[in-house]
Amino acid sequence: MGRSIVTTTLARELWSRLRPGQWPVPPEAFPAGSALVGGAVRDALLERRLERPDLDVVVPVEAVALCRGLARDWGGTAVVLDASRSMARLVLGDWTIDMARQEGPSLEHDLRRRDYSVNAIAVRLPPSQLSVVDPCNGLQDGQAQRLRAVSQANLMDDPLRLLRGLRLAAELSFSIETRTWRWIRMGACHLRRTAPERVLMELQRLVAAPLPASGIGLLIRSGLLRPWERRHTLAMAGRLDAAGALERGLQPVEIASALPLARLALMLSGEGLSRLKASRRLQQRCRALQRWLPSREADAWSTGLETDLAGWEDQRRLRLQRELEQDLPAWLLLAPTAMARRWMERWRDAGDPLFHPGSPLDGRSLQASLGLEPSPRLGQVLDHLTLERAFGRIREPAEALLEAQRFLDRQSGSTPAAG
After folding, report:
1. How many CB atoms sit inside 10 A of residue 17's CB?
2. Mind listing the pLDDT tens digit for each residue in 247-294?
3. Which of 220, 251, 279, 308 gets the highest tally of CB atoms within 10 A of its CB?
4. pLDDT tens-digit profile of 124-172?
5. pTM summary value
6. How many of the other CB atoms lie within 10 Å of CB of 217?
7. 57 within 8 A of 98, measured Cβ to Cβ
8. How many CB atoms lie within 10 A of CB 12?
9. Residues 6+ away with beta carbon under 8 Å from 90
10. How far apart are CA 399 and CA 389, in angstroms?
11. Distance between CA atoms of 406 and 408, rounded to whole angstroms?
């Protein structure tokens, strides 16, 4: 069993790290008996500095009514999260404060219902005496950098907690206690009964975290992805990390976008993305990447990639660049290092005609100059000019106009006029 630490140096240090003076609502605005719980307390314990921590407060009253009152008093917005369980969110600018009515007869009882011990630590808010409440030995686990579930039943109460545990372990660089890992693997089949939107949101947080490839490997070995996984490229996702992206010439801001997308495209099948109710745009981006992913082992694919590309027809190479124009850095995470570096330099050049393909003349100019009507034929001319420009065979608008006329003559079988 844990213990409540009253007015100790640790309690004062945690309170200082939480910087209550910067909160959008002062702690004294909450009723006596309220306590800050969850991630903010855990991060303060681990000295992880967050500019605007998401605050979670357990209150001894109806949380929805309290949230509405605070929104009225402090100029925020109250959002009801779960009316039956009395859970609400107060939004004030860039801050959010989640409130939940205390479950059970005491704060300790409420904390024992939580997922992991490091999330089951509370700091009582003034006007209560400053203290840390730790009934599940979360302080000890935090100091040991160990993720331990409070109980198997708590995990099964909301199977999303299984996936959340892997994210926390990766984000915090924690080891997972052996029994907890066994519970996660045993419960993996139950994740599918969680709302798909919640699963996808947690997955997106996991793949976006600055975690090593081993964290993705842990997710794969857990079996949690099984209902949605893309089996033949799943293992490749475990090889992608920020260090490899830096070696391939990606900058941090590019890695933040490319790495999560590449991981999702490698891990989740098209059907899986649909069943998880991913946005249409996310599905399109992942499927575009998947069309150009290796059909054989990644190492062999990477080794022979440049040789293969050299044998491609111009049309196929252009199709690759057009379909992956926005997300080429994600595809290059699997490419040879030297090639990826060269391609990234060209991709950053917005004027590169192959890496950012487009026709040198627009449709209106072609209609006016050549007397074309809007039609599939006009589209064919634009595609041809895009191809010729991409490979440097035309550069100036005048050259493009002549080439457009030659293309039309070839299509119609007529002989071009001299000069």
Report:
1. 17
2. 999 999 999 999 999 999 999 999 999 999 999 999 999 999 999 987
3. 220
4. 998 888 889 999 999 999 999 999 999 999 999 999 999 999 999 988 8
5. 0.86
6. 15
7. yes
8. 12
9. 25, 67, 70, 71, 74, 76, 77, 78, 79, 96, 97, 98, 99
10. 10
11. 5
Residue with tokens 């001299």: 418
The tokens describing 193, both together, are: 């009964």
Residue at token pair 């949380």: 63
